[in-house]
Amino acid sequence: xxxxxxxxxxxxxxxxxxxxxxxxxxxxxxxxxxxxxxxxxxxxxxxxxxxxxxxxxxxxxxxxxxxxxxxxxxxxxxxxxxxxxxxxxxxxxxxxxxxxxxxxxxxxxxxxxxxxxxxxxxxxxxxxxxxxxxxxxxxxxxxxxxxxxxxxxxxxxxxxxxxxxxxxxxxxxxxxxxxxxxxxxxxxxxxxxxxxxxxxxxxxxxxxxxxxxxxxxxxxxxxxxxxxxxxxxxxxxxxxxxxxxxxxxxxxxxxxxxxxxxxxxxxxxxxxxxxxxxxxxxxxxxxxxxxxxxxxxxxxxxxxxxxxxxxxxxxxxxxxxxxxxxxxxxxxxxxxxxxxxxxxxxxxxxxxxxxxxxxxxxxxxxxxxxxxxxxxxxxxxxxxxxxxxxxxxxxxxxxxxxxxxxxxx
Length: 409
Ligand SMILES: Cc1cc2nc3c(=O)[nH]c(=O)nc-3n(C[C@H](O)[C@H](O)[C@H](O)COP(=O)(O)OP(=O)(O)OC[C@H]3O[C@@H](n4cnc5c(N)ncnc54)[C@H](O)[C@@H]3O)c2cc1C
Prior knowledge:
The protein is of the alpha/beta class. It is built from 13 helices and 20 strands. It has helices at 14-25, 70-75, 98-118, 137-147, 157-162, 176-182, 225-229, 240-247, 301-310, 314-327, 329-333, 363-368, 390-408; strands spanning 4-10, 30-33, 45-49, 52-55, 60-61, 80-81, 170-172, 189-190, 195-199, 205-209, 212-221, 234-236, 251-252, 254-261, 271-274, 284-287, 294-300, 335-340, 353-354, 375-377. Flavin-adenine dinucleotide binds next to helix 1, strand 14 and helix 13.
């Protein structure tokens, strides 16, 4: 590693990889410093079993018909699966008859419409617009725990309605995380190299890293808000407006459990189940993704947080219990654990994806604003409309890289 660069990118998740590519393409000397021993950040595919790539983080190519990554992913040789998700359906109508499924969908649509109308007024928590005592509130909160990683009392109405989603969702058969990681030029990435401090008091920018000190003319910061809020990455002199904005854009929590299923033929391919419809603490279960013999369980919000605190295995036990309750104790015996995530405990993520706290929707712009026209900020949380996503992170990386290129020119 040389000790002087035009631009240093901090963090090699989707935003950092995009920034690195754009900066290198502009002919600048650039390196990405990554705290982990791998690239991709919250987009991460593991092999849960032979021939079973499992996306521990991002799995869905959201707004796929407009997503700028869909085409490059196919061009890079990955397989896009265009089967639609069935997140709102209940396979076998299990404990959730069709008329109730319709009633829940209507209640959720009406709630979202109330949020859109409310966004013309002051920025209040989404939960303010639930109908007091209404039957489907617990499920609307479960939806929020999956979608926002937090229940609606923690979610800004203005921020929620600003999210832009075309409703088209695809998947990458070999893994979304694997596709994103494949876009990184590893020669230009320094792994196992957390940055502790960015010094910007003098004419040159200096970075204190685990592998020594570097200088740069510009820096693109692509770390999660959690890292900035908890002081894992600091600035000297301090930038309190950044750490405060980051704290107001906390990472909600979503976790996954992967369970192998013996003799899976009686389960529908791409089927879906809610574990419970009468409480918020429940899982969303994707049955036989890609036709493969496994179930991907999704848990969010307080439920996921409490289970993570209980320790490894607690989340798996919870989902096996829910599935056994729905499909019977014989079915439970056909399940075997493959993998579970723990994003809140991951020291370089400390959560899953950002949501703005009530009243704090404007923090995304504060976080994204450059400092001294030489420190630039990217990452999913800096995107006004595509936050919480891989393609939003990617777009933000391109935007910040372009800002740096313009500044250096
Ligand atoms: C369970 C789960 C499910 C999800 N599902 C989807 C989905 O279906 N579709 C979708 O589009 N998105 C999804 N997301 C969100 C998506 O993964 C993220 O929005 C996106 O990957 C964030 O990219 P990023 O580059 O902003 O941040 P990150 O991916 O977090 O990258 C930041 C990088 O910075 C590194 N870093 C942190 N601190 C330092 C430091 N001090 N020095 C050096 N490096 C540092 C980290 O190690 C990390 O590699 C999901 C996320 C999770 C966790």
